[in-house]
Amino acid sequence: xxxxxxxxxxxxxxxxxxxxxxxxxxxxxxxxxxxxxxxxxxxxxxxxxxxxxxxxxxxxxxxxxxxxxxxxxxxxxxxxxxxxxxxxxxxxxxxxxxxxxxxxxxxxxxxxxxxxxxxxxxxxxxxxxxxxxxxxxxxxxxxxxxxxxxxxxxxxxxxxxxxxxxxxxxxxxxxxxxxxxxxxxxxxxxxxxxxxxxxxxxxxxxxxxxxxxxxxxxxxxxxxxxxxxxxxxxxxxxxxxxxxxxxxxxxxxxxxxxxxxxxxxxxxxxxxxxxxxxx
Length: 279
Hints:
Layout: H1 9-17, E1 19-24, E2 30-36, E3 41-45, H2 59-62, E4 67-71, H3 92-103, E5 108-113, H4 115-126, E6 131-137, H5 160-174, H6 184-195, H7 209-213, E7 220-226, H8 239-242, E8 247-254, H9 261-264, H10 266-278
Parallel strand pairs: 3-4, 3-5, 5-6, 6-7, 7-8
Antiparallel strand pairs: 1-2, 2-4
Helix pairs in contact: 3-4
């Protein structure tokens, strides 16, 4: 059953605790960030067709030690779509400017998921002074084998009941290892996020752009994947090789999890991330 995310208890609790900050995002537009906690700044960048709530199950734990800024990337969620924005290479400057406004002269811990790793890669390459450490979750753009997922388009009828089966099938194929992970919250968030995604022409995730950017990163890098992530299933043995151009401190496979590892196994993921942040 699909539900308006604003009615989901965990979303309501986090929204009530958050402060919302807007930074410039094109002529007259704003990029929205939600903030929780106190401590060193930590920035969360979500995946494709997502929003801040890709980190729904992690924010409370992280905000006990950090000031957490969770973005809605340009063209996603509540953020504006800047003119000419098509992919990570055309939105990263707005993200960099936002980070600078939010954190000032303090370099941030930059944590990114899937499509967000591409944005983070461009930020770390073009504005290295902004990034203290880079944490790549389900990293894209490494030139690895692209599996055939056969994802189906939504019906276009605009009625959640018509699309629930399609959303579930697509998420089972791409996002999670275990179908039971897809509870009402996961399905409802994904459906709502899809309906607000205006950054539809993303292509560079299928390239090796992150291998080209790595030599420009000047910070420690940590990589995390779910051990059952369909997007790297055929290339697990090559992950260290394709990240050999950066200062890779650790690469961790979280057991029994798919691509959306931070939602499917939040406790295990948080432990790995916090260990990397402490290091």
